[in-house]
Amino acid sequence: MGETELIGIIRDVNAQYATLFGEIITINFAMIVAIYYFLHRASLLFRIAAFGFYAIGMLALIGLLLEQGNYKLEALSALAAVPASQRSDMGDSILILNGSWLAHATSFFLNAGLWVLFAVIAFLLFAWRGDPNRRAPGTAAVHALDTDRG
């Protein structure tokens, strides 16, 4: 496999990371909205079922991230095995960048972010009991607003 193909694999994996992480963020925002509007009032069995479906989706996406990570690791290893005299400046730059503090920090935040999101959703789903200042429909304050509108 040539250097150009290896660089293409690395770039494709980075694009897949961005797509998969975007999907993970979307799932988490959907869960936050669901928890805020109705899941915090649902029975424990319903919340466990919702968390189970959420966990299946998250673990599937995490598995896809790990698969992509293996492709990238193998492509970087193959690129590093190309003799330096035959590697282009682009190949050298990719190897240097992937060994830098930026790549390590990005990897750390991506990995930590996944587990933080998982923990926050679990906390909100099982421990948070809703906004105490939010009035339920039909309370006096809401009814007064409705009568003012005519």
Give an overview of the whole structure.
The protein is mostly helical. It has one domain (3-148). The protein is 79% helix and 0% strand. It has five helices and no strands. The chain has helices at residues 3-37, 44-81, 89-98, 101-126, 140-148. The longest helix is centred in the middle third of the chain and has 38 residues, at 44-81. The radius of gyration is 23 Å and the shape is elongated. The mean pLDDT is 90.
What's the structural domain tally? Answer: 1
Shape: elongated
* pLDDT averaged over residues: 90
Order of helices and strands: HHHHH
Number of helices, where a helix is a run of at least 4 consecutive DSSP H or I residues: 5
Structural class: mainly alpha
Distance between the termini: 74 Å
Describe the largest sheet.
none
**Helix content range:** over 70%
> What would you report as the Rg, rounded to the nearest angstrom?
23 Å
- Report the sheet-strand fraction: under 5%
